[in-house]
Write the structure tokens for this entry.
Amino acid sequence: MKDKSKIIVISISILLGLIIHGYFIGKSLESFRKEDRFISVKGFSEREVKANLATWSIKTRISTNDLIEGITQIEENKNKIVDFLLKNSIKKDEIIEQNARVVDKATREFGGSDIGTYRYIIEKNIQVRTPNVDTIQYVSRQTDKLLKIGVLIADNNDYNPAVKYIFTNLNEIKPQMLSEATQNAKKAAIEFTKESNVKLGKIKKANQGLFSIIDRDYSISNPSDYYAPNVNDIYKTIKVVVNIEYSIQ
């Protein structure tokens, strides 16, 4: 009888142990499932800013058969351009003169012996770099005055425009934009929890997207930022997106 009683007691103890162990395992799994539940939301921030730096590349070009005469002429063109800039409120220390470039078509490795009417092409580039973006915007539209005094300005293309407007103060507005994007993400998460009847927990993971700076007028007509121009417009649109995961209960 004593042996049977011992067996019964041991059996009951084992059974109770399994029940208690199973209870805690169940609670652990329940806790795991709750902690594993999360939502992923995006937060967006956008700013419109004005460029604080302008660069203007002015290139004059002539064709000639007399190299000495051509160098003299390109120097005269350069002096006329600098004088034009100074008379239009651009400071002397904002004007950067670059070396003249000479192409001798007779010495080209490719192209054959036909050099056309003129043997030499001479180019001179002058760059303006200034924070006075409004001045550059105005003066760069007055280059017809240079044509009237015999200075030919070489053409530029859309991929490398002569005048570029740049915004350099991104670091000053980054904190505010990131804070705004994070708040917008949280608002979206709260709205989701209300509709889903769950409780919002803590942030599990947060990823900051890249800041994009694009020309304002382009951003209005084109929703995509891929290959968007960012130097043609004096006004810019800056965007950032953050991705945040919140745990839910």
